[in-house]
Design brief:
By secondary structure, the protein is of the alpha+beta class. It is built from 14 helices and 23 strands. The protein has helices at residues 33-40, 47-50, 57-70, 125-138, 157-164, 187-197, 208-223, 265-272, 287-292, 325-328, 331-341, 363-371, 386-395, 421-424, and strands spanning 4-5, 10-12, 25-26, 74-76, 82-89, 98-108, 117-118, 140-141, 145-149, 169-172, 178-184, 202-206, 236-243, 250-252, 255-258, 276-281, 297-301, 306-311, 357-360, 377-380, 405-407, 411-412, 417-418. The strands form six sheets. Strands 1, 5, 6, 7, 9, 10, 11, 12 and 13 form a nine-stranded mixed β-sheet that branches. Strands 16-18-17-20-15-19 form a six-stranded antiparallel β-sheet.
């Protein structure tokens, strides 16, 4: 079902290999203001094409790319390849190193209703529009989205392990993660990747807005091309694929910060009692451990007090949304329905666009913003289980915004892909199984 091809990748010239860590950048949705300012100081950093500046950022990115190509700052590999991408990292408190294994290829930008690529969250129109304009202007993709496939046999792993022994790049990124990139250009091995993936459904883990922009771009180009065949460059999108059944695929929690909430702490606690059990905590640092083992439990942090709140199980019968049980069971669905809608009064359908809610992955930053008075209060959450992500995607429904944070994040700048027809052209039939 998933129609993939190898990529004729664009990469930084070999002369930049020793300082490539200075040219890569975080994905646009995780770049802090401080990081952003530092990265823009380097005129060759990939952030200039992934998150361009100026009144016309898409045009500025196009100008940067033309300059880079002319000066051979980036060059294109002449043979298509499957790019093997390994990330080595440690979780907090972990002594053993983990390795997330995957590969980068281009996938046809299947529309959602084709049920080939499945999503777990919806997109915001403004964010998609910005990505579409950038894609139209540059015909370039500075970073892959992240897709999951299920293969209990791990058939591709031995080929990836062999390729990563002779890497193109080996560096440490902004997260302290070791990033290693290799390439497979042997047509016989590439066929095995294409053959395995043709029967797979892909779960989109990260990059919903970028993937949606690829769908929209493909549709627009198709409508404007009376000779459309489905094999043109604009049909494809760069994606990083990892096996959802591998042991080192980790989802971290994303907490909720609330701003401008007029309701007092006392009133919130009063309303909570209709849906949750509430336990006051002596030490805010206890929250992570206390909620970890409890279903539908969250930490609620005010400036002077902290609480563990847990949904009363019988209240699940009052879940007033027509959604499958596998979706209702998700912790963040419980939080967004019973707490944010029922207690705070922010309707579920309005929450994605609410100025009252922000998303923060660092628990200590949540505490700091509440203590300083910048935020009204915070809700501390747990990670979503991988099995729940798969179940929700397969149900055809979605979870609340920022439900998953797949760690580590991929980086921009290791590999670029072009949807320009001249860059794309190659007899890809040589790779067909």
């Amino acid at each position: 079902m998933a129609d993939i091809l190898p990529i004729k990748g664009w990469r930084y010239h070999e002369r930049f290999k020793s300082n490539l860590d200075e040219l890569t950048s975080p994905l646009f949705d995780v770049v802090s203001e401080k990081q952003r300012l530092a990265l823009y100081e380097n005129p060759n950093n990939s952030i200039h094409v992934s998150v361009p500046l100026g009144e016309n950022p898409a045009f500025n990115a196009k100008m940067v790319l033309e300059k880079w190509k002319f000066e051979k700052i980036i060059i294109q590999d002449q043979l298509p390849g499957i790019y093997v991408y390994y990330q080595y990292f440690k979780f907090p408190g972990q002594t053993k190193e983990s390795c997330r294994k995957g590969f980068i290829a281009q996938i046809k930008a299947h529309d959602w209703d084709e049920k080939v690529v499945l999503r777990h969250e919806n997109t915001i129109v403004k964010a998609v529009s910005d990505r579409i304009e950038l894609l139209k202007s540059t015909e370039f993709q500075p970073s892959p989205t992240h897709g999951l496939y299920e293969d209990p046999t791990q058939l591709l792993e031995s080929y990836m392990d062999a390729a990563i022994k002779d890497p193109i790049y080996d560096l440490e990124d902004y997260q302290g993660v070791r990033e290693v990139l290799g390439v497979i250009q042997d047509a016989r091995i590439i066929r095995k990747f294409l053959e395995l993936m043709k029967d797979k459904v892909v779960i989109l883990a990260d990059g919903h807005h970028r993937y949606q922009s690829a769908i929209t771009y493909r549709k627009e180009k198709k409508e404007a091309n009376p000779s459309h065949t489905g094999n043109e460059a604009y049909n494809y999108h760069m994606m990083y694929f990892t096996n959802a059944l591998s042991k080192d695929l980790k989802i971290l929690p994303t907490h909720r910060l609330f701003f401008g909430i007029e309701m007092s702490e006392e009133k919130i606690l009063e309303k909570l009692e209709g849906f949750f059990t509430v336990k006051k905590l002596n030490d805010v640092d206890e929250i992570g451990e206390l909620i970890l083992q409890k279903k539908w439990a969250f930490g609620l942090v005010f400036k002077d007090n902290a609480y563990k709140i847990r949904l009363i199980p019988e209240k699940m019968t009052e879940f007033g949304m027509e959604i499958p049980d596998v979706v209702k069971e998700v912790e963040l669905m419980v939080l967004h329905y019973f707490f944010i809608e029922k207690v705070l009064g922010i309707a579920f359908q309005d929450q994605r666009f609410s100025d009252n809610i922000e998303y923060e992955r660092n628990m200590n930053r949540c505490f700091a913003k509440v203590n300083s008075g910048e935020a009204s209060f915070a809700v501390i959450t747990k990670e979503v289980a991988m099995s729940q992500v798969l179940d929700v995607c397969k149900s055809g429904f979605t979870m609340p915004q920022k439900s998953t944070y797949f760690y580590p994040k991929t980086v921009s700048g290791l590999l670029f892909a072009s949807v320009n027809e001249d860059d794309f052209k190659f007899p890809y039939q040589a790779f067909q199984p």
